[in-house]
Amino acid sequence: MLTAVIRAAGSPKALAATFSVLIPAVADGFLGHAVVVDAIGSSDIERLADATGASYLRAGSADGWHLGGAQARGDWLILLDAGDVPLPHWTQAVERHLILAPDVPALIPLRGVAGSLRERAAVSFGGRRLRAGLVVPKGLVLAGKLGSAPRRLAIRRERAEP
Length: 162
Known about the structure:
Residues 1-16 form the signal peptide. InterPro entries: Nucleotide-diphossugar_trans. Keywords: Signal. The chain has six helices and nine strands, in the order βαβαβαββαβαβαββ. The protein is α/β, with parallel strands linked by helices. Strands 3-2-1-4-7-6-8 form a seven-stranded mixed sheet, with helices on both faces. It has a two-stranded antiparallel sheet with strand order 5-9. α1 (12-27) runs parallel beside α2. The mean pLDDT is 87.
């Protein structure tokens, strides 16, 4: 079962955009749970998480992935920032990856040249750190770093404006 861990920084509109693509994955049985980690403590974010059935945590952004991962019910996690919107057919791309390379973390890269360049630079300068867009085993999130560089998936994600 896949769990979404979403870091939210105060924009309910951005979180709603992310939930808009996650809810169909829940309905299809692909995504089993979501954990929203709120760095600011917004009551609007908490209400939105509650309305969607997601777990809600208040924690700083530095330890958000770890604390969210500890609350996750699934063995695999998709790490997202509020506003991240995986493009259509993302569930098929992730499912295919989990079947073909079940021990390798994956990355749903940002769409566009600027986002791609930022992510490629992140890989060059500490590519084993946790970051948005990763599909990763829960154990690696709890350990705080990847065991190997992630495999880039063919699908992309966009970032909605807050």
